[in-house]
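Team,

Forwarding the record for the chain on the shared tracking sheet. I've put the sequence and predicted structure together so nobody has to dig through attachments.
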Amino acid sequence: MIETLELLNIIRFFTGILILLYASYTDIKSRQASNKLWLIMGFIAVILLIFQYYNVGFENPYYLIFIPIMIGIVYLLFQMRIIFGGADAKALMAVALLVPFEPSIAEFPICKGSFMPFSWSIFQNSLIIFLFIPLSLCLFNILKRDFKFPNAFLGYKMNISLARKKFVWPLERIVDGKRKFVYMPKEFDASAEFDKFEKKGITEIWVTPKVPFMIPLLIGFIVTFIIGDILFYLMNSFI
């Protein structure tokens, strides 16, 4: 028979998956995720915490302090533009409220006992998964026989007319009449940049996809529930 705490953790698990899955879908389609999703996740999180408090209690109530700490860290990272999307920041804040403690469902997570807050482990694992994107881009460019360092790790070549219709940032700009590679594209009028290239007769440039972080966050959420803190797991394996 499933114990009350384990049942609560199962609800947390599927709540996170369903909401992040739908957010990933809308993020892919329109690069937007409704604020209602994070309000729903936050509301469910509060209800679960209240129910747990009155029926099971908290093994280590001091971990609740990591909820505002995590929210503050995420807000700071967003202000520093380390986290680019507002939806990504709100999702991480809602996750911090949903899983403030390390959950236990049957034998999962495999690696238990991480000293980091569980919501931070989710964020950390999501970043590790996100790092596979440059490797994937590199492999894609090698297969296309279009390898150029460091461009191949950050994007791929695309026809400008097609790039106008896609969710991409130009990795090149026209500066003082010359073609210049840009490592970290910032907010600017991409359409105006495309116009500059076309006026020079350039039809193909390097672009970088606007990859929705919601997808690595979804995968990181699932992986953390199953495996646990990946870095902590690796440290325990090799040290």
